[in-house]
Amino acid sequence: MLLLKKTSVLLLVTGATASSTSSLRPKQNKGASTLTLPLLKHHDVVERRRRELRDAGIGEEVDENPQYRRKAFYETEPQITQLFQGYGTHYVDLYIGTPPQRQTLIIDTADDLTAFPCGECQDCGDADAHTNPAFDEYASRTFQRYNCKDCSGQCIHDPQNPDNPLEFCAFQADYGADGSFSAYKVKDLAYFGGPHDTALSPQNWEEGMSGAVPDQASAFTFRLTFGCKVTDTGLFQTQLANGIAGMGPSDTAIWNQMKWDSVVPDAGFSLCFAPHRQAPTKEGVGAGAITFGGTDLQLHKTPMVYAKDSRLTQTDSPKYGVQLRKVYLRRHGGESVEADSLDEVLFELRDINTTELNKGGVIIDSFTTGTYMRDILEEPFREQWNKIVDFEYTNDPLSLSAEEVAKLPTILIQIESADEQIVDVSDPYSVTGLAGELGEEDTPTDIVVAVPPQHYMLYNPNDDTYHASFRFLDDQFEGVILGANFLMGHDVHFDVDKKRIGFSESTCDYEDIVEDAINDYAEYQQKTLEEQETLAASATLGSTEASGRNEWNSKCGGWCFFGKFAAGTVAVVAAVGSVRLYRKYQLKQFRRDIRRNSVPGVPMPGMNERGEQWSPQDKLSNMPGRVVEHDMAPLPSRLT
Fold it and tell me: What is d(CA 352, CA 278) in angstroms, rounded to the nearest whole number?
């Protein structure tokens, strides 16, 4: 983007330091880093950008009189949106600004920061690396910066030009050896989901709308505070998605901002990660669903059972945590916690000190590809593995077929349950997902999560090998990370207010949810039209009867009314038929788009030499918290 001739630039020199009691903190680089931010008058830049758009022939797309068409508060309708497959991760579409621009964000449950590159971002990767170009903040009429008054981080202004009112609320995030970014705090209108490659016009929420119909996604528009990136390093430059979506238990998390703006009914969200079956592409490969404001029962194959959220709060940002009880290996695999046959024998990893196993905390991190256990589990794990499999357990590449992978052991993880459940647990032996006879006498209501080999064995097409993404940390590190492969194949409900995390086995079939929602909306419209026509016909009948009594001897009498009523009935039937045909056309187009964007049978590529999005060394050094030097200020309950 061209800058004005008279552009002031301020260099912010900061040291990447942070304090923490965790032994897993990375060693900080004592050298200074340079953050460059352009100090431009927003009005001048906006006017220049409008001229550029007009010269390009697209100026009419900018809404000259934007109105924030808020959706009225309601009680029962969450929003469900499609997830897409990244390099070992899952991402979601976000449309931001006025007019909306598409950005893609990795779902990150271990962070509360939301950030993606803006137009002035330096070294933010090649244009071909990400799904979309950087967000052009100057093309959005609703874009706003936070000033020093609203900034608890590092506020930047131009000391040599006190008359320039432009200020930046800056912060940095360091993710260890795998990358970092610098950004400043801003806000704009946004909505999630919708048609994958088409922005929607603003629309008001109307009765009968559904949070699962893509064409109605803009009715869930809310005011988003996020980080406008100005620099990127490491894997942030090469990842498929543009940025990250902070979903941690924090005031600044996206789900909380949606709740504050009353576009979803409840605090929290649900993640349904479909296994990686195909190669990710820039066009998008569907890989599950995210539900904002609750959970969708249509996704559940088994009852949802809840683990206690042993939340970690001593880090820079709070993180969702659980307490591990036991770990098992099950012979002959199987994707469900329920055994498919009697041959699927369980092997318990014995002599495990649960206090040591949970030392340092156990976090759920959707941003991380694999799962990382403490080293005290390694010896008993290998011992039981060798009883089942005829080769040693290793994280090195293995030449296996998909059929051979499916026969490897399924890992079962037993977790402490929440006090409050939504299913009757008086007979835990009959509830799928509860420990039952696996638990001790006092823990039969613990929950059990299955991690099948199709989820923990990642395929790397570069050398046609598989490698295990279930790893063990060195004894010098504390903490456990349950990553994306732990979440796969489940709808996982992060019930923030009640501090519990629910698990229900699922195929995460988003297309089925959309089909049902479109059909339900078409039926609602048909019913509404019929009710309106009935009322109109009743009114017409009453008026005609009165007129007929006064003009009983008129030329056509009651036959005139009959003709009008018949014509109205034909019109209603035609209208209802048109609505049905249009909805069927929408559904057909939606399915066609999904099939067009899918590449059946192509395996998942890797990002690094292990085929993972983020290296294990990054997670070793940063668990249980990533370093954030200047965190975002708390979000006001109402933005002005």
Answer: 37
178 band by pLDDT with thresholds 50, 70 and 90: confident
* 629 vs 357: which has the higher pLDDT: 357
C-alpha–C-alpha distance, residues 236 and 229, integer Å? 11
| Predicted pLDDT at 75 | 43
As a dihedral over the C-alpha atoms of residue 240, residue 242, residue 246, residue 247, rounded to 10 degrees, the angle is -50
Amino acid at 388: I
For residue 311, what are the CA distances in angstroms to 114, 323, 452, 624?
A: 20, 10, 26, 11
pLDDT in tens, 242-288: 899 999 998 889 999 999 988 888 889 999 998 776 666 767 788 89
CA–CA gap between residue 5 and residue 565 (Å, rounded): 71
Orientation of helix 510-550 relative to helix 558-596, angle to 10°: 170
| Alpha-carbon 262 to chain mean position | 19
Query: Hey, what are 259's tokens?
Result: 């709740």
Residue 569, token pair as written in the block: 């009935």
Percent of the chain clearing pLDDT 90 (strictly above): 35
Check pLDDT > 70 for residue 201: yes
Dihedral sign from CA coordinates of 456, 461, 462, 466: positive
Q: Are 183 and 218 in contact (CB under 8 A)?
A: no
DSSP one-letter code for 518: H
Structural contact between residues 183 and 228, judged by C-beta atoms closer than 8 angstroms = yes
pTM of the full predicted structure?
0.76
Q: Which long-range contacts (CB under 8 A, 24 or more apart) does 437-443 make?
A: 438/326, 438/328, 438/346, 438/412, 438/414, 439/325, 439/414, 443/325, 443/414, 443/416
Structure tokens that stand for 438 in this block = 């696996």
The string of pLDDT tens digits covering residues 86-144 is: 877 899 999 999 999 999 999 999 988 899 999 888 788 776 788 888 899 999 999 99
Single out the residue of 289, 372, 369 nearest to residue 324, CA to CA. Answer: 372
- For residue 94, the cross-strand partners are 103, 192
Residues 6+ apart with CB under 8 A from 440: none
The mean pLDDT value for 390-409 works out to: 92
Cis peptide before 636 (omega within 30 of 0): no
Dist. CA 11–CA 224, nearest whole Å? 27
- The Cα–Cα gap between 324 and 321 comes to 10
What does each C-alpha distance from 183 to 38, 50, 274, 625 come to in angstroms? 12, 24, 32, 19
Q: Which structure tokens are listed for 301?
A: 């194959």
Strands (E), 222-304: 222-234, 243-246, 269-273, 286-292
CA gap 260, 363 in Å, rounded:
26
For residue range 41-56, what is the model confidence (pLDDT) as tens digits? Answer: 444 444 555 455 545 5
Q: List the end-to-end C-alpha distance of the chain, in Å, as a whole number.
A: 29
Least Cα distance to 146 among 223, 71, 69, 62 occurs for: 223
What pLDDT sits at residue 42? Answer: 44
Give the position of tokens 């002031």.
8
pLDDT, tens digit, 9 for 90 and up, residues 605-629 = 233 344 343 333 433 333 333 333 3
The span from the CA of 322 to the CA of 299, in Å, is 23
pLDDT in the model for residue 153: 64
Q: Cβ–Cβ contacts within 10 Å for residue 31, how many?
A: 7
Alpha-carbon gap, residue 411 to 382, rounded angstroms: 12
Are the C-beta atoms of residues 220 and 243 closer than 8 Å to each other?
no
Take residue 433 and report the two structure tokens written for it.
Answer: 């997902």
